[in-house]
Amino acid sequence: MIQVISILGAIQILSAYVLGQTGRLKTGSPHYNLLNFVGSSLLTVVAVLYGFRLIRYSSCASLRCFHS
Fold first, then answer.
1. Could you tell me the pTM of the whole model?
2. Distance of alpha carbon 41 from alpha carbon 66, whole angstroms
3. pLDDT tens digits, residue range 45-68?
4. Residue 27, in any domain of the structure
5. In terms of residue numbers, what domain contains 43?
6. Is 20 domain-assigned?
7. Are 10 and 39 in contact (CB under 8 A)?
8. Residue 36 placed within a domain
9. Angle between helices 2-21 and 30-62 (to 10 degrees)
């Protein structure tokens, strides 16, 4: 699920970039800004959630929280 959200966020940012570069969307328009905002918000949420999970597991592994 995290990968799907990441891909959707990246697609939104890249589509805003491509539409801006081809002249189909003005870079200062509300639609351009909305695409960038939503895409970057999705990537930020994934980075925060996944980053905290990585930090938790790496610190837990160093403290030997997993019983073998």
1. 0.73
2. 33
3. 998 888 777 776 676 666 666 554
4. yes
5. 2-60
6. yes
7. yes
8. yes
9. 150
